[in-house]
Amino acid sequence: xxxxxxxxxxxxxxxxxxxxxxxxxxxxxxxxxxxxxxxxxxxxxxxxxxxxxxxxxxxxxxxxxxxxxxxxxxxxxxxxxxxxxxxxxxxxxxxxxxxxxxxxxxxxxxxxxxxxxxxxxxxxxxxxxxxxxxxxxxxxxxxxxxxxxxxxxxxxxxxxxxxxxxxxxxxxxxxxxxxxxxxxxxxxxxxxxxxxxx
Length: 198
Hints:
By secondary structure, the protein is α/β, with parallel strands linked by helices. About 40% of the residues lie in helices and about 15% in strands. A five-stranded parallel sheet has the order 5-6-4-7-8, sandwiched between helices. It has a three-stranded antiparallel sheet with strand order 1-2-3, with no helix packed on it.
């Protein structure tokens, strides 16, 4: 697939068929486990009619580690199709906050622009939250062991270290209430969708 961004046309590389598409921004809310994504998404659901909020973790299973390209591309295709409803998709998920993973797929060119918001927190608070997290929040999810927690703490640190290079917008959640963090995320979403024309 190739995308002519200027004309908003998708071109099939095999047969040359062209299809017009509507290009909306794609907003990605990311961050390692325990930084507050799910809590914020829960608070925001049903509060906006100008965007479609999605939880990529709801279908995550460990076997997708072997098919991570398929997983990312599937979400990008879904977001592209949702954008045809004239509402920008807002995709919540940890691994989808890595720009290299998104931009490796031609599907990313179907959006007018991609914005990344990352939630981070202090590692002690992150570990406390992860230990308190109930298992089974999503299909196939189990209680985290120490190696899982350590991996998420390391991922959190990667986001902090990479924020400037990747031009992330960062929200620090360590001492913030869920309501305070939700308000900041909501404002960030508004800043990217409020000027669009339905």
